[in-house]
Amino acid sequence: MDEINKPAADRPSPPAVGTEAWGHLPARLRALLITGTLRGGAWLFKAFQSDSACEVSLEHVVGIATGLARLRDELYDVVLLLHDRETLDAWDVLGTLRTAAREGQPILVLGMDPEEQWGAPCWEAGGDGYVCLRHTTTRMLLWRIAQARERHLLIAENRRLRQMHQQQLVREHEEASRLLGQQRQLLEDLQSLRSRLVQDAALSGPPDQIPPILVAHYRELLRTYVIMGSGNLSDELQSLAQLFVQSGLGAQHILRLHLNVLEEMVRGLGARSARHVMNRADLLILEAMMNLAESYRQQCWRREKRLVQGYLPGMLAEAPSAGRREAA
Fold this sequence. Notes:
Blueprint (H helix, E strand, L loop, with lengths): L27 E8 L6 H8 L5 E8 L1 H10 L4 E5 L7 H11 L6 E5 L3 H10 L5 E3 L5 H64 L10 H17 L5 H13 L4 H17 L7 H33 L7 H13 L1
Parallel strand pairs: 1-2, 1-3, 3-4, 4-5
Helix pairs in contact: 5-8, 6-7, 6-8, 7-9, 8-9
């Protein structure tokens, strides 16, 4: 390693390292060096001490069995495995080391052979990189260690975020199911009330079956509403309300239709969020009910207008004069 033999005064001063951030050398590192002989890593202590860019606490053990025992008891930022065909063949023990070490443990293989020869096999065997000691520097080795450590930290952070996202999706689907259950209960209460009113009045209520064409129409409208919002759908909602009125459907029928279509859509979401769908669906049913109420109001107004009786032609003008003749 070129920098090991250089005096400290001849090397450029390292940049100051403050709080740790992605893409920077950490202030401190704890490393475990596993070699085949006791003398195998003495030079590495001096190399790390010669560069003050990062404070490295290095522990040296001999043999893979001793290294595995240390990994069971301690946590390290990186494991450095010194490859030596005669004393410790990294390719024979790397798989065992990866299996026995904690999940997310960075492992770098150090050796004298060119990186082009062993770089790919190292990755394929589960290592985080191969470093050729003949063509690297102390600072470069520190960066390779930092990158391997950062990679595993990012993988762990990404896994944690995915788990949080999955838990949030589960909570959203549970909340959607709870809200749909409450709306179902409201629908049952409305249906029970309507049945009692119809029975007391000895009248026949509106039809219980919703025409399939209205179901398909509402399903397509809900899908469009979820994607686009109300937008230019006001005319479609008004037309749909008029179709409901013409079919003799009431609020409880529309709510049942809405819940059936919405439950079908929520079940089809799978791993996607249900919050957006539920929010848009609430707005749609509110707007649909408003249009339904307005359509029934207009129908009642037109019916009352037809029932109003007016004077026959000429009667309104003659009535006052006839009253005056009688008085005379």
